[in-house]
Amino acid sequence: MKLMFCLLALIVVSSAFGELYRGHQLFRIEINEEDDAHIMHKLGEANSEMLDFWTVTVPGRPMDVMVSSDFVDEFVNVLAKRKLSYEVIMTDVQDVIDKEAMESRKAREGRKKRDIMALEDFDYSIYHTYDEIAAPGEPGASDPKPVVYFEGGIHSREWVSPATVMYFTGKFLRRYMESDPEAVRTLGMFDLHIVPLLNCDGYNYTWTSNRLWRTSRKLNPDFGCIGTDLNRNFNAFWGGEGASPWPCSIIFRGFTDLDNVETQAIDNHFQKLKENNRVTKVFIDWHSYSQLILAPWSYDADIDPPIDTDKQIAAAGAMAKAMNETNNVPGGYIHGVGTDILYVSSGTSKDYGYASTPQATYSYTVELRDKGQFGFLLPANQIIPTGNESYYGVIGMLDWIYENDYN
Ligand code: 0X9
Ligand code: ZN
To answer: Is 156 a residue whose pLDDT tops 60?
Structure first.
């Protein structure tokens, strides 16, 4: 594995979020009928400034939506009219954001600023700013093995994703250097290519201006809004269902596929691997939240799953088992085909990993903790447990693949 962590200065971060989410409430609504899903969808379109859908509206799945303070009464009326059951998970989202910022400040108190940090000095138990994270990865090795690709932080508000990818990367490196047999075995089977934080600009923005920003920071000229959902911008079934052509939507697909520098950079990397006849075996895009391991497809619910579905599901099962055995996390991790256990979305990295340039037999979206209690605002004290279950999940999956499908 060729990987370098260049961990830059720790800086004391003050809460720069202002009061953007003061009085905003997070609702969890039971959606059982197609009609209700449709109404919610329409309501969201008409009031995009007031409603932020943390999960997507699908019948049979709870829908989490953040409602701005001045829209709460109207929203509750709509729910009452439709006789929809709901609970309020957060009564004031800003309080939860402030608590997170305060804990982050406390954890950093007394730390020295340093330009370069040794791997063993990096504190994995807290969330880090963009400036603290820089991870130039270099493809290629003298004795090339099948590639396993991990990508974190495509959606900037999902902070536990880069934190987890950095944590388990650090753990692999540390344990490898200590000659731990599991780490030596894993890194002996595969080359790991790791992008801990893909959406750097979006992530930086979640630290400086808006904690709940999801998309990239690319300007959409003529529309007066910013951002592309990078997980709708890949050249796999781009422009289909579950992605928006509307530049102000949080699931905007881009004007063309791969028209953001982040998705382009990923594709360039896999183009180069292809030119060098490298095999990419596994592709995992780490997200939060919901505790799911999703296999292809996600672009269309009416087509058959891919020919590799049985082994994809079996390897995902091995990962879920290892994750659940590690910490017995409430609700557990569930695995399955994306369109079966989540919603439809096109231009996603998972479908790209399987069907486009990487051609990875095993391509997944993993949704980390939790099941909705904190959602994107997962407290920092859950980083290490999440990282640990993911570390063993990765080993469980890679062992399964090595034993059952290695060529
Ligand atoms: O919508 C997404 O991009 C992912 N969920 S998230 O809450 N992290 O934004 C899931 C995308 C992949 N899966 C399917 N749509 N089936
Ligand atoms: Zn995501």
So the answer is: yes
